[in-house]
């Protein structure tokens, strides 16, 4: 369970509108934990220690009610305070204001917020401005839970702790990069939220662009929050603005075998919201000019799979006879989920006496196998990020200017999509997405890796 020693003497105070007391909240939390862990999986002593940390205060986010008693509960705690706002984004401002005026905020208070951080550049700027009047940037933790995923952090280790990759990590050697975040689930019970946002706002503006940054950024001088975030920001600012939808494909899933399609799930029959988007992005700088980044994400696709694939250029010349079969470009695939791991695709000689015949073989590393039990018990992304809030480490959190730079690139894409006369292209549920997404690659003589 939660980080042992580090949390000793800590308290978790839930504050919400619901009529509840501390015992009622503890019961809720216990039931949720049992349900999550499965029968017999919780250590009763640890559980008791954890539940004893919990408290509850009834609070009115927009009114006066409850704030004084929240402050009373915090009284005497000289230690760091973290406020995690798990609320609708329009309440970020009012709640921050109350935290400041009611006296709950101390110099070592940390504020945690999560997307949607605005719905365009203007609203993101307004939110940043508002938070900046109440908190210093060093106190604001903007979560992108993809940055908390173990393999995503490993990406930085892979790039910056191994001398092997850096010399070939550029457009001279890399043909292109593919980033796929495919989900099997549809929009389910989140139809109303999703229909207002769509895949571009929900996934592309944040998770996929953050992954792109980690692949594309220059080595930071230190593994230290602002050094890392400065480099990510430079990448976002180097993205070539897209003109129209020529490099963008939007899709919407249709139901198969009697199952509901997107519009039924979203309860909006004529919805034009995309549940899939693919974009060819280009980074205008010395390292990446000429090596595009193809990004795609969607719901109700064939499999749940998140992967970054760095596809290298083919061998410049083949010394083997045609009968050997051609060489295939090397691919470094970083699998974020499921089966977290890293694979390097190589061309080797087919084993056996049949002469020189070439074939593909993977050099494979899965965390579960390589790290044994530790690989299997990797912390959940949120677990890791909450611990970082407590430790005061902002490296894996987005800075305000990063969020704005991402919106600055995304805004014209959304504007073009909203102005487009055509609807997103339909694709079958559990397929690999709309036809046009395949074309986005084919027309460049490339192909997507399988969603599997
Ligand atoms: C969230 C999106 O940020 O990420 C969801 O709002 C999406 O629509 C989810 O399903 C995917 O996260 P994960 O960790 O399951 O890949």
Automatic annotation (TrEMBL):
One of its GO terms (biological process) is pentose-phosphate shunt, oxidative branch. Residues 8-154 form the Glucose-6-phosphate dehydrogenase NAD-binding domain. Pathway: Carbohydrate degradation; pentose phosphate pathway; D-ribulose 5-phosphate from D-glucose 6-phosphate (oxidative stage): step 1/3. GO terms for cellular component: cytosol. Transmembrane segments: none annotated. It is an enzyme of class 1 (oxidoreductase). It catalyses: D-glucose 6-phosphate + NADP(+) = 6-phospho-D-glucono-1,5-lactone + NADPH + H(+). The keyword Oxidoreductase applies. Catalyzes the rate-limiting step of the oxidative pentose-phosphate pathway, which represents a route for the dissimilation of carbohydrates besides glycolysis. PANTHER family: GLUCOSE-6-PHOSPHATE 1-DEHYDROGENASE, GLUCOSE-6-PHOSPHATE 1-DEHYDROGENASE G6PD. This is Glucose-6-phosphate 1-dehydrogenase. It comes from Geodia barretti.
């Amino acid at each position: 369970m939660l980080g042992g020693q580090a949390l000793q003497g800590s308290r978790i105070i839930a504050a919400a509108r619901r009529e509840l007391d501390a015992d009622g909240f503890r019961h809720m939390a216990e039931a949720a934990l049992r349900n999550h862990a499965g029968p017999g999986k919780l250590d009763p002593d640890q559980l008791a220690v954890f539940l004893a940390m919990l408290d509850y205060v009834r609070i009115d986010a927009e009114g006066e009610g409850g704030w004084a008693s929240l402050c009373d509960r915090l009284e005497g705690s000289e230690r760091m305070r973290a406020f995690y706002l798990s609320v609708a984004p329009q309440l970020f401002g009012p709640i921050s204001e109350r935290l400041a005026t009611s006296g709950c905020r101390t110099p070592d208070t940390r504020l945690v917020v999560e997307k949607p951080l605005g719905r365009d550049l203007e609203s993101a700027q307004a939110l940043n401005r508002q938070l900046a009047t109440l908190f210093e940037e060093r106190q604001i933790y903007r979560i992108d839970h993809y940055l908390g995923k173990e393999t995503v952090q490993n990406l930085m280790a892979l790039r910056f702790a191994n001398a092997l990759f850096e010399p070939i990590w550029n457009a001279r050697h890399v043909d292109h990069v593919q980033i796929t975040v495919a989900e099997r689930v549809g929009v389910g019970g989140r139809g109303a939220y999703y229909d207002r946002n769509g895949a571009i706002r929900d996934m592309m503006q944040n998770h996929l662009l953050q992954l792109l940054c980690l692949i594309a950024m220059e080595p930071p001088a230190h593994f230290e929050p602002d050094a890392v975030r400065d480099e990510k920001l430079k990448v976002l600012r180097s993205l070539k603005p897209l003109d129209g939808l020529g490099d963008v494909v939007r899709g919407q899933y249709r139901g198969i075998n009697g199952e509901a399609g997107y519009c039924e799930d979203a309860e909006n029959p004529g919805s034009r919201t995309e549940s899939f988007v693919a974009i060819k992005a280009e980074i205008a700088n010395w390292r990446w000019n000429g090596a595009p980044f193809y990004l795609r994400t969607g719901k109700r696709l064939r499999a749940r799979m998140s992967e970054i694939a760095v596809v290298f250029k083919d061998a410049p010349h083949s010394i083997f006879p045609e009968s050997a079969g051609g060489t295939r470009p090397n691919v470094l695939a970083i699998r974020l989920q499921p089966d977290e791991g890293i694979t390097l695709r190589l061309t080797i000689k087919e084993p056996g006496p049949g002469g020189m015949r070439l074939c593909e073989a993977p050099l494979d590393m899965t965390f579960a196998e390589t790290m044994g039990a530790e690989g299997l018990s990797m912390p959940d992304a949120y677990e890791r990020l909450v611990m970082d809030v407590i430790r005061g480490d902002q490296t894996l959190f987005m800075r305000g200017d990063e969020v704005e730079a991402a919106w600055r690139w995304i805004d014209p894409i959304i504007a073009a999509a909203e102005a487009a006369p055509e609807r997103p292209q339909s694709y079958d549920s559990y397929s690999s997405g709309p036809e046009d997404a395949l074309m986005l690659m084919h027309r460049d003589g490339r192909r997507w890796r399988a969603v599997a």
